[in-house]
Design goal:
- This protein is mainly α and 146 residues long.
- The protein is 83% helix and 0% strand.
- Helix 1 runs antiparallel to helix 5, helix 2 runs antiparallel to helix 4 and helix 4 runs antiparallel to helix 5.
- The two termini are 33 Å apart.
Length: 146
Amino acid sequence: MSKSAISKRRSASKAAVASWQLAQTFWVGGLWLLYFVVLPGLGKIGLAELLVEEVSATLGPLLIAFAAFCACLQVLVLLQAEGLASLWRDQRGQLLLAVLALSAVYLSVWQWLPGVPRWLLFNYLLVAFCGVLLVLQPLPGQRATR
């Protein structure tokens, strides 16, 4: 293999890791920002409680759908870097699959059973918690140092 082919492969790996980090920052940060910063901030400035609930009901499903999209992107990066077995054996793959399943459940419940806000909130927080656990994992192509 020529030296240029090796360097091109490394740059692709760096691009994949950068896309992993960018996607993770957007969806995990977005979920936590909405629930722990934006909604309490809207309540603090004096907006009516119904308006804050409406903002939450509108932005929650959008962020969950965005999280599912970003998790799909991260699954592709993980498959490229680690292979198919990493989806089942690696904790990153398991967390990403959990995020995708929880997102599908959230969006299904939101669509067909909109009168269960506590279930939606619980599911939302589970997706956000899986995101935090995913942030603590090593990047694809790297091994954890112990």
